[in-house]
Amino acid sequence: MLTYHRITSIEDTYFKPLHELLGTIFPPEEVLAYELWREPLLDASIHVYVAILGDEVVGSTEYRYYPELKVAMTDFTIIGKPSLGVGRFLMRNREKDLQRLAIESGTTPIGMFAEIYDPYRTAEHEFGGVSPMNPFVRREVLSHIGYKKVDLQYVHPSWDHEGQAVSELDLGFLPQDEELTHIDAALIVTFLEGYYSALPNKPVEWLAMIERLKTKDQIELLPL
């Protein structure tokens, strides 16, 4: 039976296997160094959970809720072993927790952001050998869930603190209202500036993207 366990310290027994799992799934520029996790995990607004089977970490998800913006962000969802129902387990527990956070803050969420790999824009990705984490599979699953592509040329600062522009992802948004076709550009700007405030080195491409967004009113949501 899977257990949903929150990690709030790098001293947690399950943090080391989680970090190792992250390193097998994502490229190096997408993974925060081990010791640099110490401070973020102390932040009560950052929710890092692992799916545990026996004593083994078989999946994980990280997310946060911004009551002032009425949006959530899924930092990652990873599956370490197939055929265990890990993805569904993480998604449902995350939904319940986000619903709790919204109720506690007295807000009604409008949707959830996620950065989604576009495998069609890159030659290859050396993802770990777990078929559910193949970027083609993940993108299609997220499309089935209801995620849409935010219509902009998206880049983000690399998490290795080198200040490089990572451009092989789209910014996705899962609207609470499935009929929603546009999202406020100002909301995107506020969200991204807050989300990446922890990274001091911003690439010029990211800064330019933010400035372009500031000249817009609404941004279209496209099929993923």
Keywords:
nine-stranded mixed beta sheet; globular; 224 residues; 11 strands; 6 helices; single chain; Aminopeptidase; alpha+beta
Outline the structure in words.
The chain is α+β, with helices and mostly antiparallel strands and 224 residues long. The protein has one domain (2-223): Gcn5-related N-acetyltransferase (GNAT) (Aminopeptidase). Helix content is 31%, strand content 28%. The chain is built from six helices and eleven strands. It has helices at residues 15-25, 38-42, 86-105, 135-145, 185-195, 204-214, and strands spanning 2-6, 47-53, 56-66, 71-79, 111-117, 148-150, 156-157, 165-166, 169-175, 182-184, 218-223. The protein has a nine-stranded mixed β-sheet with strand order 1-2-3-4-5-9-6-11-10, sandwiched between helices. Strands 7-8 form a two-stranded antiparallel ribbon. Helix 3 links the parallel strand 4 and strand 5 (111-117). The longest helix is centred in the middle third of the chain and has 20 residues, at 86-105. The relative contact order is 0.14. The mean pLDDT is 93.
